[in-house]
Amino acid sequence: MMLTGFLFLFFLTGGVFPEKNCSYQDVLNHLKLTKDNELFSMTRPVKNYKHPTRVSLEVLLYAILDVVEKDQKFIPYVWTVMRWHNEYISWDPHQFCGIDNVSLPAEMMWKPDLTIEEMTEKDKAAPTPYLTINDKGDVEIHNDMVLVSTCRMHIYQFPFDIQSCNLTFKSVIHTAKDIQLQASDNSSEATEWSREVMRTQYEWLFLNMVVTTINATDCLSQDNIIYTITMKRRSILYIINFLLPVLFFLCLDLASFMISDSGGEKLGYQVTVLLAVTVLQLILNEILPASSNRIPLIAVYCIGIFGLMFLSLLETILVMYLINKDSLYQENTADKDQSQSEECNKHGTTNFHNHHIEVNKWTHCASIYDVSTGGTPSELQSVAREGNSSKLMDEFHALEKLAEELGEIEKTLSLLLHNMKKEEKPGYWTRVAERLDRVFFIFYVTVVVNINQRNFRGYAM
Question: Which of 121, 283, 348, 443 has a Cα at 20 to 30 A from 56?
């Protein structure tokens, strides 16, 4: 009778047994996992304290948010996954409708006290509120962190530098006899997966991530896992915004050699270019850290360019001083020549008048002599007048003609002297200034070429 009833029920249900209803809370009730149960949250989850807890760690780089060279800070956004075994957790999934993992609040379980050695500020991201457990007792928690960590910057080759920053994970208080760390991924896997999930890299280009596990040599030491993130700076913006302007200012200062030294325009021009390079140096000082062991190549380059421009400015001042000194000397010489010429002309005019007075005296004496020798006064007077007048007229015309010829000679000499002054070579100090300018130009170009070659070699190393 009972067999008949069983067969009847079997045919009614189509040969399918009713499915059992299961929930996650059934699993937690089976494990007696509640907030009040301190077995899971208070102590390290081992039944024998001599057994260490092995913690597996996985780290992925999600974004490079910032790199502050001045403060030597590295700010990444990373994902971390921690896995460990809890010896108090296990169940048979077949008893709970195949449930093999359960998510529960993170504060209900003990968690490894891992920290990052280079972290200087508290994690700004909110902690993950849940973790996951499975039927074998494995616990897994995912977390994302915005890290503000210290990183030793090597900016000798700035802006063509490559930086490597470390993230060292270790336990806060537990030694190797309590917690043993191991990396889930090797370097190639961590690099490949980080490139897949990378969202932003700021001004940097992510190269690779090297995973290094340092196991403790004794029970009192701690295990460390070091993730070394290597990145290369994108230098194109620094080339356009900094290096090229400095090079342009250098070309402008080099072009100042084509400006005449006689005026003050060249001096003002070079001072303006020097001030522009000074502004760029102030901008560079705000970028580079002051604690660098080696002076960056770009700083050496800027200091060299600034020094050359400063020497060029001093050379311009010296050349202008020499030219002004020579021009003052030539002006004083011209004034002396003009005063001597005027004095000579005055002396020649005085001699001409004195000669004319002597001729008149000689004529008067001759007339007196003729009277004393005899003859009637009227005859003598008429003869003397005729002879003296013709003689005086001849002398007067001769002197007048001589004066005109002297005047023509004076004009010719003045014109020749004026032409000679125009065609004469520059003075001694002007020639010295020209030679100094040529020598300094050769020195300037040579130093610029050497500075550029040294910087290119330094960046190529």
Answer: 121
pTM: 0.70
Residue 291, Cβ density class (10 Å: 0-12 exposed, 13-18 middle, ≥19 buried)? exposed
223-281 per-position pLDDT tens digit: 999 999 999 999 898 888 888 888 898 888 888 888 877 777 888 888 899 998 888 88
Whether 430 and 322 have beta carbons less than 8 Å apart is answered as yes
Q: What is the dihedral of CA 65, 70, 74, 76, to 10 degrees?
A: -10
Q: How does DSSP classify residue 95?
A: G
Percent of the chain having pLDDT more than 90? 33
Q: How far apart are CA 297 and CA 196, in angstroms?
A: 35
For 77-94, the pLDDT digits (tens) are 999 999 999 999 999 999
Q: CB of 31 within 8 A of CB of 101?
A: no
Helix (H, G, I), strand (E, B) or coil at 307: helix
Q: How confident is the model at residue 423 (pLDDT cuts 50, 70, 90)?
A: very low
8 Å CB contact between 228 and 212: yes
Are the C-beta atoms of residues 341 and 335 closer than 8 Å to each other? no
Give me the mean pLDDT over the 202-221 stretch. 91
**Highest-pLDDT range among 99-108, 295-304, 386-395:** 99-108
Spatial distance between the Cα atoms of 101 and 92, rounded to a whole number of angstroms: 11
Q: Are strands 179-183 and 53-68 parallel, antiparallel or unpaired?
A: parallel
453: its two tokens: 């070659």
Please give the Cα distance from 262 to 397 (Å, whole number).
Answer: 53
The mean predicted confidence, pLDDT, of the chain is 80
Task: Give pairs for 435-439: CB < 8 Å, separation 24+.
Answer: 436/315, 436/318, 436/319, 436/322, 437/257, 437/261, 437/315, 437/319
Closest by CA to 133, choosing from 101, 96, 100, 91, is: 101
The residue assigned the tokens 């009227």 is 378
- 110 neighbors 43 (Cβ within 8 angstroms): yes
Plot region of 98 (φ>0 → left; ψ -120 to 50 → alpha; else → beta):
left
Which phi and psi angles does 13 have, rounded to 5°?
-85, 0
| CB-CB neighbours of 323 under 10 Å | 20
Residue 83, classed as helix, strand or coil, is strand
Residue 182 CB neighbour total at 10 angstroms: 13
Handedness of CA 286, 292, 296, 300 (dihedral sign): positive
CA distance readout (Å), 163 to 232, 269, 374: 6, 40, 132
Instruction: Please tell me the distance from the alpha carbon of residue 156 to that of residue 160, in angstroms, as a whole number.
Output: 9
Specify whether the CB–CB gap between 185 and 138 falls below 8 A: no
